[in-house]
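hiii, so i know i said id send this last week but things got crazy w the move. better late than never?? heres the sequnce for the chain we talked about at the cafe, plus the structure i predicted for it. fair warning i was half asleep when i ran it
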Amino acid sequence: MNYINLIDVCNINMGQSPDSKSYNDNCDGIPFFQGNADFGERYPVTRVWCNAPTKIANPNDILISVRAPIGALNFARERCCIGRGLAAITPDTSKVSVEFIYWLLKGKTVELNSKGTGSTFKAISRKVLEETKVPDISLDQQLQYAAILEKIYAIINDRKQQLAKLDELVKARFVEMFGDTEVNSNNHPIHKLSELCTVSSSKRIYQEEQSSSGVPFLRISNLVELIDNGIFGSDLFIPEEKYNELFTNDLVPKADDILVTSRGTLGKCYIIQEHDKFYFQDGMISWLYDIDKSITPLYLTLLFDTRDIKRQIDNLQSGSTVAYLSIAMLKKLNIVVPPLALQQQFADFVKKTDKSKFLNENVIHLLRRVKLYDQF
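okay and structure toks below
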């Protein structure tokens, strides 16, 4: 297959930050997008306007993040000002399909990130974008590929909405069965978390103990990815021998133990499964184990998603400049403990919804593997 450079079929307009005096939040001027933080699902969300724009993108331009995270994409809905974190790509529609270029760039995220430079925040230059390879295929073929990927995108979005509705159903059922735990409306007993389980973390793994292969070593971002998507990618590992040593000394989480994110993103929980095999970063992730028989791991993890626990965490954070949830803080959390039979009844309900979630998640995983741009 023959290739051409992106610059051969698109105009590339690198963003530039205008004078800060031109920024405003009262709709004076045109929308101003500084970077990926302004992106929505498909179109950016206007929070700031600019009355003296320097670099301008036009409706239907492809906006691409050129600073970490590199490669995020949106379409410009209207004439807008773009800051240095973005570039606007205007395809020549006599040569290429706008939608094809959009999906092609979607498939280039890893490649573009690998070309990023900078010690603090990686960024790509105009040259990197200009030299991005585009397959030299007919417009008809481009439109065909883009149409297929648009259909896949629509199906994935529909399945995501179904998953969100199932999550809302579980939350509604939680309140229906256990009441408002923030005020303990059902007058259930309350215990400190330290009374219900052991609150600890992993054994510290020093940099020299890490390896390029072996057993995955999870950081906060990996655990959040696992919680949100059911899978995670890892670029850090520990040797199999080190993992076996930790396992032998009962320093590896077992099934039904709980991991809690404790730095940056606070209070997201993951229940260890039988098949899990990984280790995790101490201090950043907390470990709940030896959980009392009076409380189920499922109930406890969902409790962390209630206003009650979130409020308690916020109060414990009072005065802190860094979002951090220490072991000492976790131990102080007040936990409402309903009757075990009620918790088990709730668990049975969740299992039924999990079957539907599993089917939807499988469809999403399968569709995400259909990347026609991989052949380019």
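btw The chain has a mean pLDDT of 91. thought thatd interest u
miss u guys!!
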